[in-house]
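Reviewer has doubts. Consider these tokens.
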Amino acid sequence: MMKRLLVLAAALLVLLAAGAMADQAADPLKGKLTWTKVDARRLRPDGLPYLFNDASYYARHETDDMKATVHKLNSMLDKAKDAHPEVTVYTYFIESSRSLNVRGNVSKESSVCAYVRENLCSDRFDRLKVTSLSDLGRWFWSTDHHWSWKGSYQGYLDVFALLGLEGEPAVPTEEKEFPVIFNGSLAKNVKQPISEEKFTVYLFDGVPNYKTTVNGKRKQHDGISTYLKGRYASDIYTDHYSAYYGSNPAEVIYDTGREELPTLLVITNSFGDPVNELLCLHYGRVISVNLKHYKEQLGTSFDLNAYIERYGITQVLILGDFSLYFYP
């Protein structure tokens, strides 16, 4: 009897192993995920982006809310282009683990991105092209939804080409690592301070001095100079991304004082902050607008025509990830 039980146990182990191998072949992330005790949120132990829950584990798809947002944007853009046909609209969509199918072919354009490309009234379109999970690990913080210093620089290079800018793009002169660990929004939301990444940025020479006006008031927008002087918080959940690049309010105007250069209007979310500074290399003024906070913070609706007429704008860049279209 004991011998028979041992044979049956061995057979069961073989079947379980075969099933596990089949599951892993069907799902390349199988076996690479560990489980926490916090609402069964999944964490990555292998250096790639952490996937904390099903909301960020499965790809988003276009929804009625998103379609309504794209429709509102189109109404605004159509009205502006009818009145100002010289205006060119550029769209740059940032693919991430929140839009791509990370359990499938991440190199395939997400359905959210495809919907924006096919339906938004834009003259030129590009996206952050992810070809592998390693790209996600390189271009995004492990525990934050934002792109990393490498991802935002790749975005800048893509936007440089998209806008057809002349000359050469900015090249980093230093990779600056601060002696603080960055536990981003994903870690903070589930109270899992598991990051081992130090907050890191690229530094650039030649970026012109600029003054910033935030929601109509002249004030410093970012914390770049403060960080470079060694003054920054070291709390376990400090949002170093926003503290360094800025908190992305309704309107930020970066003015270099070079009136001979054109003005660029950027409709964006918090993903735009690291790119806006570099765009100052190529424009006299960069105006960053966050539609999500516009009416709440400025007390009026955003009027694209008014910006075009006031600043002589001929280029409008729409830059953001999926959330730019889900939360107008």
The mean pLDDT is 83. Residues 61-326 form one domain. Residues 2-26 form the longest helix (25 residues).
